[in-house]
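User: what does the whole thing look like in 3D?
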Amino acid sequence: MLRQMLYTQWKWSRLELAVYAVYGFVVPTIAMKAISLGSGAVGDTIAVSDLLSASSGTGGALIVLCVLCAVSLAARPWIADDACRHSLALSLPVSWSAYVRLRFAAGAILLFVPTLAVWFGSTLAGLSLSIPDSLHVYPTSIAARFLASALVMYAATFALQYVTGRKAARVVAAAIVVLLVIEGVVQLATGQGIMLRAFDTVTSWPGPFEVVAARWMLVDV
Amino acid sequence: MDAGPVLRAIAAGLALVAGVAAARAQSPARGASDMARRNEAVAAQLRSRLRATAANADRLKARLEVLEDSVQRERVVDSIRSGPVVAIMRSDSLPADIRQRLAAGVELAWARMREHVGPNSAFVAAHPVEATWRRDPFGWRQVTMLTMVESRGISRYLFGDPSPDEVAVAIVEMYSGIAGELGPESIRRWTRHQAIAVVRNSPRDWERVADALATSEATVARRCDLGELSQCITALELDAGSSADRLHAWYSPGDMAALSSGASSRDSATRALFRRCATTRTTAVCEAAMQHINVPTPVPTPTRAALVAFAVERGGDGAFDRLLAAKAPAAEALAQVSGIPIEQLVAEWQRRAAEAHTPRSLPSLLSTAGALAWMLLFGAVAVRRRP
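Assistant: Here's the predicted 3D structure for the full assembly of 608 residues, as structure tokens:
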């Protein structure tokens, strides 16, 4: 059944997955070069600081890709099921939880497509770059970080979508408004905000998004 | 009868009458003029006296302020002590909970400093910290302000309810600042007036040193990172080379080309020079190009400060006091402080930095495990609810 589910989701998402794969392949190769040239590099002559900036910029572009992949792959099956009022889930001889598990697993497996593209792109970029001996290229680690981050983001979005259903967008908007109001009140009352602390909590160990907020560098020490 | 005397008498009489008439006509004007002159003189005198009195009042006012300030300075209503670290309070306005936090912070600060500056540091004892409860610089809220009594320019504001760690960090920074001010001239010049740390290098400091060496624009520093001792000495400017030779010693033509590639200028000729250096990597061209760039030292100055801190750590007992009293040039002073030759000191420093190298771009096992655990948790939440 997983195979069938995977096939269905692949058919729904293949176009955007293709776009993400191209993006994932192109970003490390082209972006590294483009950012380097933008900083004034001539040929393979590039200042170390520019190289690291280019590497950091590439990491930022990959985080954007990671979020896009995760959100679209998590939301698409729900949108498709909801369009036909979940009749497929109700008609299949499996429980709701088993059905959702299969949907979740299928989406998670599809995340390997952009991850592989990122790995190929990073490896190619690493081979084409001339870097000092004291620095290293990390194509596998950046791909691993991409996969781990995408899985967490995907799982979080999937949970939000499947718990709140059609109200997901409204829930997110309301949560943002409530947070902003609380931040404003706390700022006025104590002079210290809570948003920054909350952000630190979720983006540092053992917060869920620690892996997303960590260092995304294709070239590093 | 001779009419002469009669006429003369008549003429004299007429002259007398005319003189009296003229005198009568002039005397009120002359009197008024004299009066005005006298009044003016009196007014000038009064103005002068007033000025003198005002100046005197200003002097007295300034003296009063000095005396009041002195009284305030001498007034100590409370103090917190931990080892030689003393935090004094001039007024009793400091809230009790803030005082408790300060006490914990002072204790923590001394625990961090003790090992480095020595258990009976005269330097620390001679520089008490003053704690005041006052409005922040913008006048918005009450904050705790810490100031070095002996050097009032060194101060820190602690907002809200500072944690003991925040207090300790502020105190350590202030002592480092004052040590930087009082340190030997040779070390101050060599570290470009960086603060002299009163605590040992933290793992994060060592990591920064390792990063600075590995990511330097100069080959000499990157080779130092890879373990070439002579390159470390050159990169740190601890050799006897003259400053004129530094550019060659620090930067290879390739490094200069890289620096040129990132440089910019409004002048088209200079831009062309940068481009020529970046493409041809010719020494002469690149040297000319470097004249238009503020060439950085191979390693940033905090890296040098980390070597000073390491020299104190290596020197053990009394090393910090030896550092403050040093008179020799930087390399010699560091050797004296550490008690070992400068080459050995730099070699050990480089080894410690190399050990601190952590490939941060590799996701740790813990981080990966955490991500997978959160993924499973979110997944479990998702399957529990049915639409």
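In plain terms: The longest strand of chain A covers residues 136-137. The beta strands of chain A are 136-137, 219-220.
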